[in-house]
Every structure is written in structure tokens, then in C-alpha cells.
Amino acid sequence: MLNIVLFGPPGAGKGTQAQRMTDATGLPQVSTGDMLRAAVKAQTEVGLEAKKYMDAGALVPDQVIIDLIKERVKHADAQNGVMFDGFPRTVPQAEALAEIVEVSIVLAIDVPDERIVERICGRYSCGNCGDVFHDTFNPLPKAGCGCSTFLEKRRADDNEETVTARLEAYHRQTSPLADYYQNAGLLTVVDGDRDIDLITEDLLKALN
Ligand code: AP5
């Protein structure tokens, strides 16, 4: 069983790398951000609760997230392990995760704050297949995305004001997790301020 945590600030490239590593490892990408956005779209109770935090760039309460993860890891596709993307994000979430599955490795993608705003404000994805692109750094290839019909989608929280709040939340609540996982001997840090392919290579090397 291989349980990978992809860790890093908003816009570090967790989702981009998770999609590539899913192809390479066969593990499902479990993104709490994607799960919350699906809940918001479906207007479930969790979605309605989460939306106000997400719109403000704040973290959704731990117990909401932990309950989502407990349910998600019961799915058949998670039986050989999971690639967690954007979870855990607080020490209480990490402690809860340790009770649910054994974390094999934490891959931290290190990107300086000054790169984050430009990355997030230029992001778009395909609303059908979920492939992630960037206006400048990673444009949609001529051949298209992973599905036959590209449908451009931009996230409601991808604006400068919310990004600033998300970065603040990251430094205050999430970055202490690096020490938590370093002390547990699980942390590998990869320089995320480089070409996307080079980062994927290093992340895959860290798994071997
Ligand atoms: P979430 O959806 O998890 O957002 P995030 O952590 O802020 O991360 P992002 O998805 O913005 O970035 P990413 O690292 O995946 O980067 P990407 O690959 O897209 O969370 C959203 C909200 O939900 C949170 O604010 C919170 O409210 C809530 N939430 C979610 N999980 C939670 C939890 N566990 N606890 C509490 N609340 C939670 O890349 C970004 C852009 O850069 C793309 O355009 C990409 O093409 C480009 N790019 C990628 N790599 C490179 C590169 N190497 N060089 C240049 N450009 C690059």
C-alpha cells in the first residue's frame, strides 16, 4: 500500500503533478479542493457550509474535511493506496489521517510566494476532463486536453484578493506540517520553481 501526500502552497503545482503521478503510479488523486468544489456545485450541506470559507480563502473546518476523507478512502479504487492532493492542511488533519491510513511519503513542492499569484491568476482547466493549464506557463496543447471536447473553466477563488488570504492561511496553518512530517522522517522537498517535467521526474525518483 502506497499513500502519498502532495504538500505545498496554493498554486505550487500539486494538482498538475498529481495528475501526472496518477498516470505513473495508478493511484487515485484525492483532492479535497476538488471534492469540496463538487459539493458546492451539487449544493449539498457540506458544499453550502464550505463555500463561505473557500470564497474567503480560508480553510474549511477540520472535521468537515476529515469526514470527507474517511468516506473517500473506503472506495474500491483506494485499496492499494491514494495520492492526497491538498490534504492534510493542518496538524489536526494530519493526526486524523494517521488514524485512517499509514502515510508512506510526503512530497513537498517548494515554490516562493512571489510566483504564486501569477500561477493562480493564469490558471484554467477543462471542465470535462479536469486537465489543468496556464495562460503562459502551460497552455492548452494544439492536440487539445485529455478529452475530446475542451471546455474552459476558471475557479471562483483564483483572484488576487483570495490568493493573498489563501497564502496567509497556508503560512499560518499549513506550513507547520512540514516540521511535523520532517520529524516523522517522511518529508522530501522538491524545488517547484522549475519546468513542470523536471519536477515530475524528481517526484517520481523520490518514490523509488
Ligand atoms: P485547493 O483546490 O486544494 O487549492 P490550493 O491548495 O490552494 O491549491 P491549488 O489547487 O490552487 O494549486 P495546486 O498546487 O494544485 O496548483 P496547480 O497544479 O493547479 O483548495 C481550495 C480551497 O478549498 C482552499 O482555499 C480551502 O478553502 C478548501 N480546502 C481544500 N482542501 C482543504 C483542506 N484539506 N482543509 C481545509 N480546507 C481545504 O497549478 C497552478 C497553476 O500553475 C496552473 O495553471 C498550472 O498550469 C501552473 N503550473 C503548475 N506547475 C507549474 C510550473 N512548474 N511552472 C509554471 N506553472 C506551473
Question: Brief overview, please?
Answer:
The protein is built from 9 helices and 8 strands.
Task: Describe this protein's structure.
The longest helix has 15 residues, at 160-174. 47% of the residues lie in helices and 16% in strands. It has helices at 14-25, 32-41, 45-55, 62-72, 91-100, 113-121, 160-174, 176-183, 196-207; strands at residues 2-7, 29-31, 81-85, 105-110, 123-126, 132-134, 152-153, 187-191. With 208 residues, it is of the alpha/beta class. Helix 2 packs across helix 3 and helix 6 (113-121) packs across helix 7 (160-174). The strands form two sheets. The chain has a five-stranded parallel sheet. The protein has a three-stranded antiparallel sheet with strand order 6-5-7. The chain binds BIS(adenosine)-5'-pentaphosphate (AP5). BIS(adenosine)-5'-pentaphosphate binds next to helix 1, helix 2, helix 3, helix 6 and strand 6.
